[in-house]
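for the record, two folds in this file. i put them one after another cuz i was lazy. first one right below, seq on top, structure tokens after. the second one comes after a little note so u can tell where it starts
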Amino acid sequence: MMRRCRSLCLIILGFALAGLPTAAEAAATENKVLRVVPHADLTLLDPVFSSIVITREYGLMVYEELFAWDSKLQPQPQMVASWTTSPDALTWRFTLRDGLKFHDGQPVTSADVVPSLKRWMGRDLVGIKLAAALASLDPVDAKSFEIKLKKPYPALLFSLGSAIGQIPVIMRAKDLEGDPSKPITTAIGSGPYRFNRDARVSGALTVFDRNPDYVPRSEPADGLAGGRLAKADRVEWRVIPDAATAAAALQNGEVDIWEQPSLDLVPMLAKRSGVRIQRLSELSNQTMLRPNSLYPPFDNPKARLALAYIINQADVMAAAFGDQQFWRRCNAYYICGGPYGTEVGTEDFKPDLAKAKALLAEAGYHGEKLVFPSTHEIAWIGQMAEVVADEMKQAGMNVDIVWADWGTTTGHLANQGPPSAGGWNLFVTGASGATMHHPLTNLGTNMACDRKNFGGWPCDEHAEALRQAFLDADAAAQPAALDSLHRYLASVEPYRVLGQYDQPVALRANVTGLLTSPVIVYWNIDKN
């Protein structure tokens, strides 16, 4: 026991010493520094090139969007001061607010806005849908630009404020002149914080300094909307891979925030003086079992539907997240508890092996091997995969889990070839509630037949027509459109919803101002 304690103490002491400022950083210690344990290291500096969550968090520190989702996921103006709409809702003119400057001191103009939006509309799920409705996008003058649509598009402002996938941040036009297939690396935005490239230590440290020239909006902060007040002079993301070490650092006051504490440590942390636990979003995260719709048996909707009668959500979620205070059963594609969280069409989804076996037989499945890539590197994914595979075997399915690190697994999942030649049949993953809560943003119910949708690549033109009908509907028609869409999705199962879970944030008790938002942000946060 003494040897074990001594080892842990040395780990904690080593972290504390590593956290001491260098001579070059000494001046920063006189200012207010917010020290954060992020969920991952920052490796990519372009939030329009990649949908990686840590890159999105970085993007919201350094850049801004024209609109921003509030805590209710409703779009509010951010870089935009005002806008007008023609009576037919086809022409929209936007004017930028005063005080917008890039970190190099140059003003933000419509000449920056237009190419930024066009680049985003060529890459992102939400942007691509907007591009399909777009007739033209042009500057009017230095502070104004105009969007003309082919048809009314009710989701326009919601799209311009998107906080999921590749987000539509505004970059300098000159940074967009290079190879469009390569990410931007300049990291010069107009947001409340500046990326400190000199302080960056790969795998260990990312630093942001308060932007003294930033002019926030006057409205109170609300989600990602409102005034983005940088109350800390400096924000440091300190990577600590070991959960026990991160927990000790938080308890000792060596860090102020642990972004994604291990759920098995949360009950212990909640009892510690000087530490509190806070939920980030009102929407829970969603977990899924995603079949590959390109190849048998899951190219047949009946085989996918069989999964709804094989998987016991309670077994899978308990294995992954333990105490039920952190998870719940749910069959809604668009998140139980969200504005579109209907479960219509799924009323009989519960374990029924006889029904599942009948559906598999109708789909032509006769025990062929199913390749199931997964990982233990993200513990809950591996734990879910084990339970799912066991339940599928009970239904007579021949499942072969291929274990690897997460990087290798994601590389495997990008392969669109047949399972017998390096491809795969199904995998477990998850996504945030903000991502999955809406038919426009939910990557799993995008069934476009272009093989550019989320891995699994389901193709269903009728599903896409129903999804488009929802997007085109006004507020009065949306409930009926949603009902039709969800009923159909439940019959063809683009993926099996496994349930929902909450990932809280752990903070020191003296830290205030963490916003309820779809993505964690570090403006508005203060510490006493």
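(here's the note) second protein begins now
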Amino acid sequence: MRRSSRNASEYRSTAGQPTSDSHLWRTLSSLAPYLWQYKWRVLLALSCLLCAKVANVSVPLVFKNMIDGLTGTQQVLALPALLLALYGGLRFSTSLFTELREILFARVTQQAVRRIALEVFRHLHALSLRFHLERQTGGVSRDIERGSRSISSLISYTLYSILPTLVEMSLVLGILFFKYDFGFVLITLLSLTAYIVFTIKVSNWRIDLRRRVNDTDSAANTRAVDSLLNYETVKYFNNEEYEARRYDSQMRQWEDAATRSQISLSWLNLGQQIIIALGVTAMMWRAAAGVVDGKMTIGDLVLVNAFLIQLYMPLTFLGVIYREIRQSLTDIERMFDLLAVNREIADAANAIVLDAKSVKVRFASVDFSYEPKRQILFGVDFEIPAGHTVAVVGESGSGKSTLARLLYRFYDIDGGRICINDCDLRQLTQASLRTAIAIVPQDTVLFNDSIYYNIQYGRPEASREEVLAAARAAQLSEFIELLPEGYETRVGERGLKLSGGEKQRVAIARALLKNPPLLIFDEATSALDSRTEKAIQASLDYAARGRTTLVIAHRLSTIMNADQILVMDGGRIVERGSHQALLEANGGYAQMWALQQQEEAVEVEVERESAAAHAL
């Protein structure tokens, strides 16, 4: 299915705008293929709908004949048994065909919701890192939630309310036209037209109010989610009341919008009831006049009254239904807008699958910038031969972690080439490229699940024995065995129940379990104390053995054995060589080394004094 593409900024700027009629038709045309996949179920459901309405309209006709058949003192005895049986049968048939329609259509609706939600979910994961860094998670999740729910609402309102009402309206108008004079049809048409026009005009005016309610609701939800995700930061700065005031400020806007929307709804309902009252009064006056003149029977009066009730009862909810349909279409459109967001990073048409047990990495004069006015890398050029380890050091902001993001192809470079086994990254499928890489990131974020799940996430099909082996290799097993629930211990939202060092050890175990030909350690031991770092370093060295490894490091003591060390400054490689060669060059690396040696000596002295005090 073809959709227009847009970028992330266009999604944000148009998500709250009024929905035009062309957009509504586009949304309906986008939704139709998901439903038409089950066309036989749809056609059978529509047939049941028609049968149910024919039976429903036939009930007043039978009831009229029953009333007209009552004569004198023998009323009960004179009731035709056949009409009674027919009356009951038609009543049951209405319910039978209605329920059959719902049974037939239930799976169509739920399948459509599931398939669309899954497609949006997959598409969001396929979008670039840039989109996810710029997005508001709470607002996007609310758009998906409302869009999925609105599909069910739209189908329910159209199939179970609007379409049945239109069918019944056509049948009733036909009976009134052929059985009575045109006056009844004219009054009914005028009433229905006035009601529908009034409802649509006022409801369209109210859509902006409803949209304001939804926008303020999404904004409040986004603010709440953002605050709760940063729970620790809020606590660090004692800003609970500040966050509460910010949330309340957003909720006040929602309160004002919701109040205006509710008041306008009351005025709409009042106007609708005035039109219905006038139409019913005119119809009953004409029917009563016909009875007095002898042109109509009491049964005809009952029939007209029954038809009016059948017509106006669903019309009472037409305003609500129309508004909900419009709102559902708007919510669905916003979800489809997510699908229309352009994938910044896409596989080439002739992309090939990387299938290698060992890899060679080459950065050839790479230029890169996250934003056009702020270049990050300038002519970066280096190679990691297969099975070798290259370490990158430098001050914060020098572009070290950007190298890892580019290797994963989260972004495309501005100039130069990045090659894996002499093949440009852009000619490889992203799935096969990322299968060949494992990373231990600087900031480890875990799923709100068990420790076992978070380790196994590195390779979901791995056996329990392999998971436990990875935990042991990351020096994690002893800690886990001390926990009451062991490997089934839940780590909390983003892993907040674990310390920084424990989270990084889980990330190391996850990377080891993946067992790829290319490893990236992005300051993997930065959150660990010296003792734990030394214990894990042996495991990291073992894991890197025989693999191509890129180590982005802060502590220089962890990279002494690297085959080559690159020193970056301002997005450029300013020094390169082995640890010993760089020390002998007495440049920036030698200065960093000397400074860190002093810091480590102080740390050792502090630990010694602490141990001595504890012994006393």
